[in-house]
């Protein structure tokens, strides 16, 4: 199935319903289809072999996504926060390209691309009709991975992967006419793409927040009557901090989905208390898997927060259970499949799993893709993601997961935020260093080390605790451990 067929279904099912933007003057499903047709004709006429999108999220993005699908070329959303030289290199790698870029970006691109349009110009020129020429096995999307532990890779997602994800996780036309989704993640993140197509398929109107602030987010929820929202953990943390114990006045809000990075336990616990009656969903996935492969649903959240059973309460830190159609295995370094409770590397496969990078396959001959995430399943099938395998600290021959130490430190009232990394050590191979953002009533390094020692083995106690003003996160809320290592070396 091609993405264009999803749009055709939307037109047939609710063509006059506004699916993007404000209720008054927004883009209906029928308008979106017409613009996608006109955009496809423009792409074909330009001779472009790809469409590069270099702008914040907004109405121009879904038009570009479906226009590219109609034209049979991939959409390539790029991180507009990258340095101009790096962006130029990415554009060159996707030439010949039609570029949709904000005006402030155009000068830095030089002569790259077949044609450059601003989002406004793109919307003004996308009218008319064009035949659908894309196929199921065509690349629909090229997304660059975040590269927090290595250089970004160009992941290739084909139409069959994206449509499989939609069909297995969403019911067609399931949203009521009043339902509206607020998307706060940028278009170069897989969640931004996934929410564009799943909300359209469900018939839910989408409103974008190009630049997040807690005040603007809450105001938009109230003004637009938002029922569903998508955030990354840092956004939810800032909302909780902004509310400062006061319940938000957002009567229309029914559900909040979060993902993209690990969620600190104290943040989700405070959010559940503040947003009383709101359903929370944790979505875990990767670019290479077309977004979500595991979900922790609203009932899971409620049961966990209310339970006195430590095993049930621990599920609040889990990624939930696998979505339909996805298989998973936890494997040891030698490839042996591990049972419940035993950590190893997470491998996945299924119709939505691409496992492909530009120029090379990343999945094995049986379709299994290595996520490079260390994880385990509990006895009830809940997936616990411990972090990137590349982040593992090897101290004296013992593998230490930074997330385990971070979780213990976050529970200390004097710790506002923390990141744990391994630095080279002649005696132990690596030494454990904790970079701590102190809270209002800071503790001493030795008090924090003793706190960890009391909860974990002494071999997992940080050798050094370094205090920092803030930690380096990407705009999607992912911790950059490479930057943390550099930071603690400078401070220490």
Quick synopsis:
This protein is an alpha/beta fold.
List keywords for this structure.
alpha/beta, 492 residues, GMP Synthetase, Chain A, domain 3, 33% helix, 26% strand, Rossmann fold, 26 strands, 7-stranded mixed beta sheet
What can you tell me about this protein's structure?
The protein has 492 residues and is α/β, with parallel strands linked by helices. It has 2 domains: 314 residues, 3-Layer(aba) Sandwich (Rossmann fold); 100 residues, 2-Layer Sandwich (GMP Synthetase, Chain A, domain 3). It has 16 helices and 26 strands. The chain is globular, with a radius of gyration of 23 Å. The protein starts with a helix and ends with a helix.
Q: Do you know the CATH topology of the largest domain?
A: Rossmann fold
Annotation, overall tally of beta strands:
26
Approximate helicity band: 25-40%
CATH superfamily of the largest domain: ANL, N-terminal domain
- Largest beta sheet, briefly? 7 strands, mixed
Largest sheet: spatial strand order: 10-9-11-12-13-14-15
The total number of structural domains is 2
- What general form does the structure show? globular
Low-confidence blocks of residues = none
So what's the CATH class of the largest domain?
Alpha Beta
What does the radius of gyration come to? 23 Å
Count of DSSP helices?
Answer: 16
Give the strand content.
25-35%
């Amino acid at each position: 199935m091609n993405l264009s067929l999803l749009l055709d279904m939307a037109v047939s099912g609710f063509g006059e319903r506004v699916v993007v933007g404000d209720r008054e003057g927004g883009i209906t499903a029928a308008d979106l289809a017409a613009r996608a047709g006109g955009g496809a004709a423009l792409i074909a006429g330009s001779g472009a072999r790809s469409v590069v999108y270099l702008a914040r999220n907004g109405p121009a993005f879904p038009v570009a996504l479906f226009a590219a699908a109609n034209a049979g070329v991939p959409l390539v959303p790029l991180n507009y926060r990258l340095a101009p030289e790096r962006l130029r290199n990415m554009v060159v790698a996707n030439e010949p390209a039609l570029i949709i870029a904000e005006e402030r970006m155009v000068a830095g691109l030089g002569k790259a691309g077949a044609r450059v349009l601003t989002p406004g110009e793109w919307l003004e020129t996308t009218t008319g009709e064009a035949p659908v020429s894309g196929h199921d096995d065509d690349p629909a999307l090229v997304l660059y991975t975040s590269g927090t532990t290595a250089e970004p890779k160009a992941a290739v997602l084909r139409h069959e992967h994206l449509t499989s994800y939609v069909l297995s996780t969403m019911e067609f036309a399931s949203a009521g006419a009043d339902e509206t989704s607020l998307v706060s993640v940028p278009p170069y993140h897989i969640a931004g793409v996934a929410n564009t197509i799943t909300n359209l398929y469900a018939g839910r109107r989408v409103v974008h927040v190009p630049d997040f602030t807690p005040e603007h987010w809450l105001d938009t929820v109230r003004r637009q009557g938002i029922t569903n929202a998508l955030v990354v953990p840092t956004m939810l943390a800032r909302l909780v901090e902004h509310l400062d114990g006061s319940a938000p006045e957002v009567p229309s809000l029914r559900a909040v989905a979060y993902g993209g990075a690990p969620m600190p336990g104290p943040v989700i616990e405070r959010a559940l208390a503040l947003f009383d009656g709101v359903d929370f969903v944790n979505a875990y996935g990767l670019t290479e898997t077309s977004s979500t492969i595991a979900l922790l649903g609203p009932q899971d959240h409620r049961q966990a927060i209310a339970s006195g059973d430590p095993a049930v309460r621990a599920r609040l830190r889990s990624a939930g259970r696998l979505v339909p159609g996805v298989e998973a295995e936890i494997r040891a370094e030698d490839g042996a499949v591990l049972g419940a409770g035993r950590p190893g590397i997470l491998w996945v496969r299924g119709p939505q799993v691409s496992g492909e990078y530009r120029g090379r396959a990343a999945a094995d001959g049986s379709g299994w893709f290595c996520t490079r995430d260390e994880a385990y399943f509990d006895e009830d099938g809940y997936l616990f993601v411990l972090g990137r395998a590349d982040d593992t600290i090897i101290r004296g021959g013992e593998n230490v997961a930074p997330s385990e130490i971070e979780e213990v430190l976050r529970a200390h009232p004097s710790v506002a935020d923390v990141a744990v990394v391994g630095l080279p050590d002649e005696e132990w191979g690596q030494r454990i260093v904790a970079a701590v953002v102190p809270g209002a009533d800071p503790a001493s390094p030795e008090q924090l080390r003793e706190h960890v020692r009391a909860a974990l083995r002494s071999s997992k106690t940080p050798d050094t605790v370094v205090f920092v003003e803030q930690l380096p996160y990407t705009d999607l809320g992912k911790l950059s451990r490479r930057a943390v290592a550099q930071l603690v070396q400078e401070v220490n």
